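Protein 1 of 2
SEQ + STRUCT:
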Amino acid sequence: CVGYCSLQDIKDEFKQLKLDSDGSAVTEEKVLRWIQQDTSYINSKISVKYQVPVTAGPDALNVLKKICIWLVSDRIKDITEVKNVRPEADQDVKASLSQKAEDMLDEIAEDDLPLLGASPVTNAGGVGSYTSRNNVPRVFKKVPDQW
């Protein structure tokens, strides 16, 4: 497995995507590299909360698949728009998918969007607290005793 999505997943996002090596701006090799790169990027963003690569939990894997497809599709869309000088409406893929993906990754990292079935990072040997686990804001005052 190359990453959180497959070459076929990317092909399915576009109605007419020509992936060949005859001078095409986007080749299968490039798409596979982008899938690897974006999978690594996803892992770097979610590794604060989950063990990566995520290999368990069909719900978690489906969310990560969606994010990876969005990231790679936007890369392809940007290249094909420049190469073909076609209007955005003709690209057969929705606009600003990578921003949606970035937002979802931030939500995962901030624990607002849990990856169901994924293994959380353990704090072996570390110190934890209710305040840290639940993102309770810390307030320090200058005058009163707080200890």
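Protein 2 of 2
SEQ + STRUCT:
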Amino acid sequence: MIHGLTHARAACIAAREVGVPLELHSAPDAVASLGPLWFQKILEEIDAEFPDLDIEMVLDCGDAAVYALAALRQGLKHIRFSGPKITTEKIRDMARQQKAVLHKGWPDILDLGHEADPANACRHWFENSP
């Protein structure tokens, strides 16, 4: 889980060193306080700096459909939404139409916001995770 560009870079450096694909997640409900453009800019920066890495970035939209729709309009290809089932199905359909993926639930994740040395924490995580 990243909380900004510094965390994203640290994770990318560690992933490159260890040789693993990378999945970066925003903090829960990040879109509500930072907006989808913030995440898009991090994605663009990371893609430019690490073109050799296989990176998937997932923006958490909480349970607010308006934020999920804003993220899709921004062009993000991976969003998480935890709203009601009927709304989830509608957003999933819109995501599919835009070749985006709607994620549900949270994977086992390392929160870099709690790490003094994010790159080292990522290396350790990558080397010791199944």
